[in-house]
Amino acid sequence: MIMSMNTPIKDHPANPFEGEAPGILFGLPMPMARAMKLSGERIGDDRAQIRMGFQPDQANSRGDVHGGAIASLLDCALASACRSHDPTAFGVATIDLTLHYVSAGRGDLIATAHCERRGRSISFARGEVRSEDGTLVALATGTFKLMARGGAQA
């Protein structure tokens, strides 16, 4: 299946982590996920989709979603795509993240990401953020280091 980056993932299997407590993102504790209202919607097959529920604390001076919040959403989505082959066995550290802001983000935002290449310990991903009405908000590419949790092999 080829994923089009211009629409949220719809034909992907249901999220095995559905109903996670706030502060947990695809099986890993992440207090920032609670603070930013991040919820993992889909993960697997080198892909991830995360929703960020808008809250006034995320707004910039114009009332749009602040670029830093959008960057954090993309960082989480790309990192999740890189560990989607075994989400609970791996943590991820961001090595590099490049963003291009395309338009203002308003309301809830949805990030979709795809792991383009996974090596033994380094992975490369790309992704995008769209508003609920489908407006493209931002594009990103990133490089991530996989870190085994417990006894997993990277």
From TrEMBL:
<protein>
    <submittedName>
        <fullName>Uncharacterized domain 1-containing protein</fullName>
    </submittedName>
</protein>
<keyword id="KW-0378">Hydrolase</keyword>
<feature type="domain" description="Thioesterase">
    <location>
        <begin position="63"/>
        <end position="138"/>
    </location>
</feature>
<dbReference type="Pfam" id="PF03061">
    <property type="entry name" value="4HBT"/>
</dbReference>
<dbReference type="InterPro" id="IPR029069">
    <property type="entry name" value="HotDog_dom_sf"/>
</dbReference>
<dbReference type="InterPro" id="IPR039298">
    <property type="entry name" value="ACOT13"/>
</dbReference>
<dbReference type="InterPro" id="IPR003736">
    <property type="entry name" value="PAAI_dom"/>
</dbReference>
<dbReference type="InterPro" id="IPR006683">
    <property type="entry name" value="Thioestr_dom"/>
</dbReference>
<comment type="similarity">
    <text>Belongs to the thioesterase PaaI family.</text>
</comment>
<dbReference type="GO" id="GO:0047617">
    <property type="term" value="F:fatty acyl-CoA hydrolase activity"/>
</dbReference>
